[in-house]
Structures are given as structure tokens and as C-alpha cells.
């Protein structure tokens, strides 16, 4: 399946890292200041950002595996 | 110092968050090439440790939402939470709260929905409370808010019956119980009715605040 956009692994992973850090900040906030708003923010925004960052990481890894597999197939074809 | 499960989980969650943050900051600062070692590090920093933080944080957060301190986080609940924490108060809520089985989580113990999906429906109702607080009560003084605070639905007798079986002979020995047995079980008459066991909390028109 071809994606409608080009994946730049480094840029995507930096984005994922920033999103995960933001998500972690919400989660830590709820742990050190367990009031209604921080707890709700951690369970919604924080976990949403964390999930998004993990999905981006999975996308980059899958795209990397797809490229590696394509390169191997091309090399096999050239040598064969 | 007493070490509770909750405090251990907080330490675990904070530790996981710290490790995840260290890995992510390392990645952002060093910008290493995307080799398999980098992928493993990022799997830990973006996946394993944040998931551990979220899981343990959820348990801690859920436990904290049961505490009286959490309920008193909305200022209009303070008259109720202060009353139940008052050792000299004689309201039914305060007397129950002095029982260690209710203790610090007496609000949740009495107001939660029991049954299989009780915790879920209780939390959904809790979200409605938050909505009502932020849209109606947040900017009110306690005096302005108290006459307007009401329960979404009548207090169910089955919550009382989680502890009070109402099956023992001493319960039937009370003439009102025997006379209203069917009405109490069907919910037509509330245990918390004024004149029976209510008002449970201090009210503006009944028990002085």
C-alpha cells in the first residue's frame, strides 16, 4: 500500500518524540498533582498524544521494513 | 512511613516516565542514524516505558478518583466533604465516614453504582458532574451553589443494602421497616427520606451547614 505522503523517518521520529514528551508531561502532572483536571487531562490528552507518537513510530518502522524489502528484491533481480 | 500500593505505583510511573524522557531527549539531542539499536531504544522510549507510565498512572488516577479529597476538589462540594471529615458531626454521612470500611473513600463507597458495570457508569456520571461544575457551578460561591445542587437521580436504596441486608429480624422489628417493606424494596420510599434516615448530608433547609 502506498501512502499519499513521503515519510521522512528522522523528521517523523522527532515529531513522535516531541509528542511523547508532551504526553508524558500530562501523565506526570496528574501523578504529582492528582486533582480532577490533571487526572482527566492525563487520561485523555496525555494518552492520546502517547498513542499518536507510538503510531507514528510504528508507521516509520513499517515503512523502513517495506523499503528494505523492496531494496532486497531489486538487488536479487539485478544479480539474478 | 506507611508504604501503600498507590505510592509504589506512583514511584513506578514516575520512574518509567523519567526513563522514557531520558531516551527521547537523548534521541532529540544526539540524532543517531536509524539503526536497529536506535529502533530498539525508541521502542522503549516511545512504547514500553510510556505504556508502563500510562498503565500505572491509570490505576493511581482511578484510585484517587475514589478519594474524598478528589470529590472536594470542586469547591461547591466542600460543605459535604468537610462535614463527613468532622469527627463531631452527627450526620449519617459523617457517621458512616468514621467507619474504616468507608473511611477516606466514603463519597465513592456510598455514591458508586453497584453491579457489573458499576465502575464504568459511575465514571460516566462523574464526567457529567465535571461538565455541570464547569458550566454551572464553577463561578458560583458556595452559598449560591448549595440551593441548586441536586442529585441526578434519587439515591437508590440498593446502595444502602450493600451493607445493610435488611433481612435480619432486628430490621423487621422497627415498625416503619415492617410497614414499608415493599415500598423500600421497590424504591418507592427512600431510606434517605427526611423523617427516615435523611437528610444524609447537611442541607440549607434541614441540618445546619
Please, could you describe this protein's structure?
The complex is a heterodimer of chains A (80) and B (209). Chain A is built from 2 helices and no strands. Chain A is an all-alpha fold. Chain A starts with 8 loop residues before the first helix and ends with a helix. Chain B has 2 domains: 5-65; 69-154, no CATH class. The longest helix of chain B has 30 residues, at 36-65. Chain B starts with a helix and ends in a 23-residue tail after the last helix. Chains A and B meet through helix 1 and helix 2 of A and helix 1 and helix 2 of B.
Task: Give descriptors for this structure.
heterodimer, A: 80 residues, mainly alpha, 2 helices, 0% strand, rod-shaped, B: 209 residues
What's a concise summary of this model?
By secondary structure, chain A is mainly α.
Helix content of chain A: over 70%
Tell me the quaternary state: heterodimer
What is the rounded Rg of chain A?
18 Å
Regions of chain B with pLDDT < 50 over 5+ consecutive residues?
Answer: none
Distance between the amino and carboxyl termini of chain A: 26 Å
- The arrangement of helices and strands of chain B along the chain is HHHHHHHHHHHH
Major β-sheet profile of chain B:
none
| Unreliable stretches of chain A | none
Number of domains of chain A: 1
Pair with the biggest interface: A-B, 32 and 32 residues
What proportion of the residues of chain B is helical, as a percent range?
55-70%
Amino acid at each position: 500500500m502506498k501512502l499519499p505522503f513521503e515519510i521522512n523517518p528522522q523528521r517523523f521520529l522527532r515529531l513522535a518524540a516531541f509528542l511523547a514528551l508532551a504526553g508524558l508531561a500530562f501523565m506526570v502532572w496528574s501523578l504529582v498533582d492528582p486533582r480532577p483536571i490533571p487526572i482527566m487531562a492525563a487520561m485523555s490528552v496525555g494518552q492520546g498524544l502517547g498513542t499518536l507518537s507510538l503510531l507514528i513510530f510504528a508507521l516509520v518502522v513499517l515503512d523502513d521494513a517495506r523499503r528494505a524489502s523492496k531494496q532486497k528484491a531489486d538487488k536479487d533481480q539485478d544479480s539474478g | 512511613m506507611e508504604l501503600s500500593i498507590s505510592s509504589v505505583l506512583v514511584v513506578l510511573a514516575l520512574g518509567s516516565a523519567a526513563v522514557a524522557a531520558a531516551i527521547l531527549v537523548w534521541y532529540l539531542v544526539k540524532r543517531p542514524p536509524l539503526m536497529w539499536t536506535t529502533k530498539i531504544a525508541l521502542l522503549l522510549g516511545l512504547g514500553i516505558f510510556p505504556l508502563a507510565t500510562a498503565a500505572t498512572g491509570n490505576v493511581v488516577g482511578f484510585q484517587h478518583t475514589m478519594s474524598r479529597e478528589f470529590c472536594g476538589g470542586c469547591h461547591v462540594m466542600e460543605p459535604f466533604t468537610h462535614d463527613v471529615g468532622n469527627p463531631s458531626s452527627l450526620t449519617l454521612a459523617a457517621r458512616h465516614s468514621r467507619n474504616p470500611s468507608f473511611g477516606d473513600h466514603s463519597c465513592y463507597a456510598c455514591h458508586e453504582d453497584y453491579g457489573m458495570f458499576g465502575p464504568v457508569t459511575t465514571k460516566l456520571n462523574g464526567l457529567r458532574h465535571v461538565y455541570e461544575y464547569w458550566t454551572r457551578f464553577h463561578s458560583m460561591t458556595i452559598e449560591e451553589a448549595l440551593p441548586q445542587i441536586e442529585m441526578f437521580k434519587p439515591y437508590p436504596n440498593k446502595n444502602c443494602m450493600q451493607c445493610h441486608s435488611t433481612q435480619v429480624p432486628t430490621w423487621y422489628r422497627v415498625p416503619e421497616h415492617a410497614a414499608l417493606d415493599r415500598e423500600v424494596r421497590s424504591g418507592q420510599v427512600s431510606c434517605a427520606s427526611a423523617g427516615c434516615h435523611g437528610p444524609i448530608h447537611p442541607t440549607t433547609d434541614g441540618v445546619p451547614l
